[in-house]
Amino acid sequence: MPTEILIAEDNRKHADLAGAYLRREGHRVTCVADGPAVLERCREHRPDLVVLDVMMPSLDGVTVCRVLRADSDVPILMLTARAGEDDILRGLDAGADDYLTKPYSPRELAARVRALLRRSGALRDRDQPVLSVGNLEVDTGRFEARIAGRPIVLTAKEFGILEVLAGAPGRAFTRGEILEKAFGFDRYVLERTVDAHVMNLRRKLGDDPDRPRWVQTVYGRGYRLAGMLDGTAAKQGPGANAGKGADRS
Question: I want to staple 82 with a disulfide (CB 3.0 to 4.6 A). Which of 67, 87, 227, 243 is the partner?
Fold first, then answer.
């Protein structure tokens, strides 16, 4: 079944070009030109991914992203004419999963879309293991995370980080390793963005920011997921070794 992509871009020429290229990739594509139309379309049709321009009439892309994130985990790819670090972090903090600076090539757009869909589960083989650490479950096939059976709504990047850490509980990953494993090679992504996503991930997991129980800081290295919680050994699936205990950050 084709995936449905929503493009929010008020420049008709740019929207038509991006839409034509993504249709050649086999996606169904709908284009809208302003923020309210994005929200209406998402409520009615629930697309698999949203390509969202930052500069749009009525509601800007960052505001639209925040509204969508309040009740949806749809992957969001932001388009921005600004490549400054603060502008990029502003979009990521609003809940965007990735960004692309203008001007961009349609081939790069298609590649970013494929990567986000793959990480979100739309292009994922559903017969994948569930990674368990204490009462935390990371279902890699269904793109779901749960604590004691309670679902945790994560963005594609947040889930990607959690999946990397849960795959080797107790092991410390550098920010560079997390970028490579969770996001794929991307010359535009900054290591600082990992910190922003980890902060959001901790909040959703209910971590105390001063003494996190789940995602712990390893000073001089990066981050790890606690390998032993409440005396319960972590499990990763057949043949995997759980990590040993971890000091709190």
Answer: 87
> What would the 3-class secondary structure string for the chain be?
CCCEEEEECCCHHHHHHHHHHHHHCCCEEEEECCHHHHHHHHHHHCCCEEEEECCCCCCCHHHHHHHHHCCCCCCEEEEECCCCHHHHHHHHHCCCCEEEECCCCHHHHHHHHHHHHHHHCCCCCCCCCEEEECCEEEECCCCEEEECCEEECCCHHHHHHHHHHHCCCCCCEEHHHHHHHHHCCCCCCCHHHHHHHHHHHHHHHCCCCCCCCCEEEECCCEEEECCEECCEECECCCCCCCCCCCCCC
Closest CA to 75 of 43, 55, 92, 51: 51
Cis-peptide into 212, omega within 30 deg: no
Percent of the chain with pLDDT over 70: 82
2 half-sphere exposure, CB direction, 13 A CA radius: 12
- Tell me the per-residue pLDDT of 21-41, one tens digit each, with 9 for 90 and over: 899 888 899 999 999 999 999
CB 63 within 8 A of CB 95: no
For the stretch 102-117, pLDDT in tens is: 888 888 898 888 888 8
Strands 98-101 and 130-133: unpaired
CA–CA distances in Å: residue 99 to residues 66, 102, 189, 211: 15, 10, 9, 31
